Amino acid sequence: MGDDKRGETHDTALLRSMVDRGLITPELADQALSRSQPDASAVDLLIQEGYLTKHIVETLLADTKDPTAIADFKILGKLGQGGMATVYKAVQLRMHREVALKVIDPQFAINKEFCERFIREARVAGQINHPNVITCHDVGQDKGYLYMALELVTGGDAAQVAQQDGGRLSEARALRVLIDAVRGLAALTRAGLIHRDIKPANIFITEDGVAKLADLGLARPSEDSERMTNAGMPVGTPAYMSPEQAAGEEAIDCRSDIYALGATLFALLTGQSPFQGANALAVLA
Asked: For residues 231 and 285, what is the distance between their CA atoms, to the nearest angstrom?
């Protein structure tokens, strides 16, 4: 496809996005455009011929604008954005309940296998009902959006709270956070889950000072051989990983999460992570 984006139609813009993501070649996009008709767009032709699926097209269409509503959730505003997802403040209309709506980035949501595993693992996490674990209210797909509705906690995370207190917490407050986190971890362990990414930023604090383990996006059943990540690849945050997790070992268990809790306590008390380096590889080394 040419580089001139002036006067670009919606169909052309969508095809360009597919080319940029490596889903189709520029030549295939140009051929489809040349054969398109008023009653059969280039994208329609590529779906009919098996080059694309409706799931891929819906996901890419969802990526072109910020949503105002997803399924039964009305979007109120953006709370934050990470490498894998965007989190919105939303209200679940049927329940009149405010939630944190986590919407997965299309580069992941476009993969049907990823979506299926994400939903399965979220359902396992949703079975946990504990005061020290963020509740997962719902998970699903709607018009190309892959989402998870989570309990909304407005007090910030432990890293933010420590920053507000001058960069570190007092011993008493840090221990209260840790005790709550240990209780939450015990609930995960009883459910057969490993968190795999415990760190100060993944421990949320309520307005009443209760700490809750959050971001179960990397959590998986401890006996699960079919998961979203590749075997042999370390998953989590390098500075808080146990040695076996950093080595990419498959047979990790709750002891890796306990290690991460210890590293988290170190960070909350000292104001710095236990291991530092110029980049992730340097930290892992």
From this structure: 19
Residue 260 C-alpha from the chain's centroid: 19
Give yes or no for a contact between 100 and 73, defined as CB atoms under 8 angstroms apart.
Answer: no
Query: Tokens standing for 72?
Result: 């039964």
Domains within the chain, CATH numbers bracketed: 10-52 (no CATH), 69-151 (3.30.200.20), 158-284 (1.10.510.10)
C-alpha–C-alpha distance, residues 6 and 263, integer Å: 52
> CA-based angle 97:101:102, to the nearest 5?
160
Q: What is the pTM of this model?
A: 0.70
- Contacts with 67 (C-beta within 8 Å, 6 or more apart), sequence order: 75, 88, 103, 145
Cα separations in angstroms, 115 against 80, 216, 255: 21, 15, 28
Q: Which are the contacts of 7, defined by CB distance < 8 A and separation ≥ 6?
A: none
Provide the annotated active-site residues: 197
Q: For residues 103 and 155, what is the distance between their CA atoms, to the nearest angstrom?
A: 21
Query: Residue 70 in 3-state DSSP?
Result: strand
* Residue 155 · residue 205 · CB < 8 Å: yes
pLDDT in tens, 206-247: 999 999 998 775 555 555 444 444 444 445 688 898 888 888
Sheet of 97-104, strand order? 69-70, 73-81, 85-92, 97-104, 145-151, 136-142
187 close to 139: Cβ distance less than 8 angstroms: no
Residue with token string 């210890």: 262
Q: CB neighbours of 228 closer than 8 A, spacing ≥ 6?
A: 114, 117, 118, 121, 220
User: Which amino acid belongs to residue 267?
Assistant: A
